[in-house]
Amino acid sequence: MKKGINAKDLINIGLFTAIYFVVFFATGMLGYIPIMMLAMPVLCPLVAGIPFMLFLTRVHTFGMVSIMGVILSLLMVLTGHPWQLIPVGIVMAVLGDLVLLAGEYRGWRSIRLGYVVFSEWLAGLFIPFFFMRDHYFAGIRAGYGDAYADTLMALTPPWVLVLMIALIVVGALGGAYLGKAALKKHFKRAGIT
Question: What is the distance between the alpha carbons of residues 100 and 57, in angstroms, rounded to a whole number?
Fold first, then answer.
């Protein structure tokens, strides 16, 4: 493992963050259908697992995954998502990076766990559903109408937060395996076991 982030690393961070964001955001568009909002915690990390796993074949330095998480959090807020995502995103990205570092970015166990921890940044998107409910749904009602807001409120009682966090774990594990399968030759070349 090398020390310090260089220009090539920054280019890789920018490129793979952009790919991850596009894949994640396109999948997240299904959330405009209220019932699909409950599928987002599984679908988004599942599909985004492919670009993330490819990114890991180029990660050799602590901080690269953390920077990716910070940029993703900022991009999501700039595209209209709740600001609470930023602290959750930063914490989960750094923790995921630490887990990956423990396996020197090559051990499959740490890669799986690291991606699960990293993917929990998605939970920051759901904080307003449960902890700022009245204010959040007033904005939803104004933007999307009563029918959408009422349906989404009915689908997200407070206990659903625990379910969403668990579904992120399931989606991220699936995404790690999907990414590994899709990128098998890249993993071998990068020496990931």
Answer: 12
